[in-house]
Amino acid sequence: MKVENIFIFFLALRLLLWLLHRYPRSIVSRVAFAWVGPLPTEQELFAHFQLRWAIFSFGWLCHFAITFTFLYMIGTYFPNLSEQVWFEVGLFAVSLGLGVAVLATLGFLIKAGKAYWFGPNPRFGGFDQSDRAYN
Question: What are the boundaries of each domain within the chain?
Answer without folding.
Answer: 1-36, 37-124
